[in-house]
Design a protein that fits this description.
Blueprint: H1 2-38, H2 50-53, H3 62-68, E1 72-76, E2 82-85, H4 87-91, E3 95-96, E4 99-100, H5 103-115, E5 119-125, E6 138-147, E7 151-158, H6 160-196, H7 201-231, E8 241-244, H8 245-255, H9 257-262, E9 266-271, E10 276-279, H10 281-297, E11 304-313, H11 314-318, E12 324-331, H12 339-342, H13 354-359, H14 366-376, E13 380-386, E14 390-398, E15 403-406, E16 411-414
Parallel strand pairs: 9-11
Antiparallel strand pairs: 1-2, 1-7, 3-4, 5-6, 6-7, 8-10, 11-12, 12-14, 13-14, 15-16
Length: 422
């Protein structure tokens, strides 16, 4: 009996030892597998199961969804390492060396990982490779959300262009209100002055003359706002027609004839003749007329304004394979435009010299109309200028063909216009 008890006790002790050894071996194996998956040991665990070695870093389908998002996408792991990032995130400088390079974004991701709450923030970032002082900052919207239990998803949307458009819209509304208020207020005051001076014919005549000036300025402003609204969508509103460049120049010179004569400014036209454009005659006449009028208004007395025309190849001007352009240049000997102002002169209501613009009745919309007319006719407008030496504005528009008279119907027909440039 004693032998049986001793044998049973020995077997129990041996079984306990085997169990402890197996438990320790199992725990050690699991720990080694975890180290192999996390990459801390730098070695692959050969005893790990194949399915554990091939376990994806992202949940199924997430990679596909991120690839079609318009926003920049970044997925962060438990240690703030970048598990996945779109090419746009690298291009914007958000990810560098496998880490998030923007501290506020990283802090937001850590807070979301801690409590699982979705967060959003607006940031301004420096453009990659640009100076923080001179370059326009990138305006981005950052949204951070948990992705499963361990990952964090960061979505970054570039809102720079949207913010710029909103700023232009606000400035436009504010400027329109101000520009309309000025002549309307002047007309109100002048009408009161006329009423008070009803017994003084000379005063009435003087105030009436001022009222006509303000009324003309108001009508010009309203008309230019209408013209701008018609061309700002970069689309022709009517069927295009052949337009003679010589006729546009003659009309532009006639428009400024009185102002130029009063300042003894000579307007000379030269270059290639018998050129034709295809487009909206009224819009083209307004664009060229605005350029010539600006040249006269900003030139000192007894100077010269030159209008030159020529035909050039689009390959030389724009690097295109074929096609021809008509180039119309308007050169003055005026005050010139500084480099800072040259970047903004085509904006609505922007004036290089506000005092002179108001003195000459300028609305600040002329060059903006020129820009939109050029765009709607698949052309461009550019400026060269040196302060104190003058400016040259150049319109480049697709060349058209002269109308051909049908001998049978005695009616003018047109040859097909060249194909539109994309």
């Amino acid at each position: 009996m004693d032998v049986n008890v001793a044998a049973a006790a020995a077997c129990a002790i041996a079984g306990l030892g085997v169990g402890l050894t197996a438990s320790i071996a199992f725990r050690w194996s699991e720990r080694e597998q975890a180290r192999g998956r996390s990459g801390k040991t730098g070695r692959t665990n050969r005893n790990a199961a194949p399915e554990l070695e091939q376990e994806p870093a992202l949940p199924p389908g997430v990679d596909t969804v991120l690839s079609v998002l318009r926003s920049c996408a970044i997925v962060l792991g438990e240690g703030d390492e970048v598990v996945k990032a779109s090419s746009a995130a690298y291009a914007m400088g958000l990810v560098r060396g496998g880490k998030v390079a923007v501290d506020p974004m990283l802090s937001l991701a850590r807070s979301t990982r801690r409590d699982g709450e979705i967060r959003q923030i607006e940031l301004e970032l420096t453009r990659p490779g640009a100076s923080a002082r001179t370059a326009e900052p990138l305006a981005v919207s950052v949204r951070v959300a948990p992705l499963g239990s361990r990952l964090v998803l960061v979505l970054v949307e570039d809102r720079t262009e949207r913010r710029r458009i909103e700023a232009i819209r606000r400035d436009f509304v504010a400027n329109v209100s101000h520009e309309l208020k000025t002549p309307v207020g002047a007309l109100s005051l002048l009408s009161e002055a006329v009423a008070d001076a009803s017994d003084d014919p000379e005063a009435v005549q003087r105030f009436a003359g001022r009222m006509q000036v303000e009324a003309t300025r108001l009508a010009s402003l309203v008309q230019e706002i209408i013209d701008l609204s018609r061309v700002q969508d970069d689309q022709l509103k009517v069927d295009p027609e052949p337009v003679a460049v010589d006729e546009l120049i003659a009309e532009a010179i006639d428009r400024c004839r009185q102002t130029a004569a009063a300042k003894q400014i000579v307007i000379a036209a030269g270059g290639t003749t018998d050129l034709y454009l295809v487009g909206n005659r009224g819009q083209l006449a307004a664009a060229l007329g605005n350029l010539v009028e600006n040249a006269v208004n900003y030139s000192p007395p007894r100077t010269r304004v030159a209008i030159a025309t020529r035909r050039i190849s689009s390959a030389a001007a724009l690097g295109e394979a074929d096609g021809e352009l008509i180039e119309i240049s308007v050169t003055d000997q005026g005050i010139g435009i500084s480099e800072k102002d040259r970047e903004r002169i085509f904006e609505r209501f922007y004036r290089v010299d506000p005092a002179r613009s108001r003195l000459t009745g300028g609305t600040g919309l002329g060059l903006s109309i020129v820009k939109h007319v050029a765009a709607s006719h698949r052309g461009t407008v550019s400026v060269w200028s040196v302060e104190g030496q003058g400016s040259t504005f150049t319109l480049r528009l697709p060349a058209g063909q002269a109308p051909v008279e049908d001998p049978e119907n005695h009616a003018a027909t047109t040859l097909p216009a060249p194909e539109a440039r994309s």
